[in-house]
Amino acid sequence: MFLCWCLSLVALIPLTTSTNPGVKVKLTAKGIEYGRQLAVASILQKLKTIKLDDMSGKVKVSPIGKVKYSLTNMKMVDVGLPTAALDLVPGTGVKLSIVNTYFRLEGNWRVKYLFVKDSGSFNLNANDISISTSLSIKTDQTGRPAVNSLDCGANVGKTSIHFKGGASWLYNLFSKYIDSAIRKAMQKQICPLVANAVSDLNNNLKTLNVLAKVDKFAEIEYSMVASPAVSKTSIDFGLKGEFYNIGKHQEPPFSPAVFSLPPQINNMLYIGVSSFTIESAAFVYNTAGALSLYITDDMIPQGFPIRLNTRAFGVFIPQVAKRFPGLMMKLLVKTVKTPVITFEPNNATVQSFASVTAYAIQPNATLTPLFVLNLDSSVSARVFVSGTRLAGAVTLNKMDLTLGTSYVGDFQVGSLDSIFQMVLKMVVIPRMNVQLAKGYPLPTLGKMKLVNTQLLVLKDYVMIGTDVQFTS
Ligand SMILES: *[C@@H]1O[C@H](CO)[C@@H](O)[C@H](O)[C@H]1NC(C)=O
Ligand SMILES: *[C@@H]1O[C@H](CO)[C@@H](O)[C@H](O)[C@H]1NC(C)=O
């Protein structure tokens, strides 16, 4: 029994550690309202394609007697869905209810009785059409959301017809024999067209960028970690939100903490990006060795008080000038472990742990190491949305320099402080900011545009509130 329990616990561990989302998305009532408008527009387009086959028959109409009739060329000329509601069904999905829908058709009529032939055109109005469908929202095998129609009902309440140039008995013919056939023919087509609109919606949902390329090193995974949670006021999606090395998905030695988006109503969509997501990026780039930079003298701005050569450094470390006279120098700055990202309210900070190796460049281009410094620094980050990407910019808070190894004997590391402050501020950070400004893709569907976007840094996550627009 104990063994069983242990085994089941072990089996659970990978599941429970991997299911916390790194990114959360909340669709608010305002977002649902936008969804309703899109749904109505889509169904409207579909309903315009309703086609009615020609109808004909031979019936007895009083007071004429036997009449042969036919209705041909029936065309839908107008469809309206004036009243539609999209309601959330907690735990399941949504229910779309459309009432007072109307169709207007035109066509031609023809009758033959006794020795008379008569014909003309007609207008047909179908009013009081109601359509209702319930949809579940789940995740598909690829981790994208998928909707499924649970039921659909359509009812065409009443129709009225106007025969242009026809005799009054035609109305009897219509109400007795034709009306119900037409209503049935319409009714039969509505739910399949709604299903068609649902399938279009699924095609759009399939455009969720579940694996979005960031650059040559990294991609970010946005698959859903569970089916969306539908409550009375919102639909909440939990996405993985994890950076990976392209091609090899190595898990970092940390996992997402639980966080939840506060109730919000002003924007359609709220996206919470956890510090885990950003830290998984730091893990990927650090592991890929991408967080390193060679600094040569030509990268040091003109007018900088010190150049990268042994004479200039000799002012602070005389042995450098003495043992390696007249040589240019080169620095290698690289992170030695994954930078730590901290989100506190209105405060995003990155702590990084790097080493700086200083080399003398020999005339034959060999690099001779002079010393290695430990450079721990803290930068403040400004995080912002650019298009559909999350980007950033950092400024130096503080820096701490200690000696790692010296190949030139003892020296005062403190004397190099202001040089390295300036190297960070004028060389390293501007280059980092060029990269950070490019940003990385947020979860998006198709050609989604973000508008009225704002961003807040909160404890352990960044919250983006935004409205969306779909352009086709
Ligand atoms: C921001 O947070 C960091 C680390 O959490 C802290 O050291 C720093 O003082 C904070 N800055 C401000 C302006 O609150
Ligand atoms: C390059 O020059 C240095 C210093 O003169 C010497 O120690 C080293 O062996 C040389 N390397 C090569 C590959 O010639």
Automatic annotation (TrEMBL):
Disulfide bonds: 152-191
Main location: secreted
Signal peptide: 1-18
GO (cellular component) term, any one: extracellular space
GO annotation, biological process: defense response to Gram-negative bacterium; innate immune response
Record InterPro entries: Bactericidal_perm-incr_a/b_dom (IPR017943), BPI/LBP (IPR030675), BPI/LBP/Plunc (IPR032942), Lipid-bd_serum_glycop_C (IPR001124), Lipid-bd_serum_glycop_N (IPR017942)
An MF annotation (GO) of this entry: lipid binding
Keywords for the protein's UniProt record, in alphabetical order: Antibiotic, Antimicrobial, Disulfide bond, Glycoprotein, Immunity, Innate immunity, Secreted, Signal
Pfam families: LBP_BPI_CETP (PF01273), LBP_BPI_CETP_C (PF02886)
Compartment(s) where it occurs, according to its Swiss-Prot or TrEMBL record: Secreted
The Lipid-binding serum glycoprotein C-terminal domain, residue ranges: 263-466
All copies of domain Lipid-binding serum glycoprotein N-terminal, residue ranges: 26-248
UniProt family annotation: Belongs to the BPI/LBP/Plunc superfamily. BPI/LBP family.
Subunit structure and binding partners: Monomer. Homodimer; disulfide-linked.
Domain comment as written in the entry: The N- and C-terminal barrels adopt an identical fold despite having only 13% of conserved residues.
Protein function: The cytotoxic action of BPI is limited to many species of Gram-negative bacteria; this specificity may be explained by a strong affinity of the very basic N-terminal half for the negatively charged lipopolysaccharides that are unique to the Gram-negative bacterial outer envelope.
Protein name: Bactericidal permeability-increasing protein
Annotated organism of origin: Gymnodraco acuticeps
Lineage: Eukaryota, Metazoa, Chordata, Craniata, Vertebrata
Gene: LOC117532956
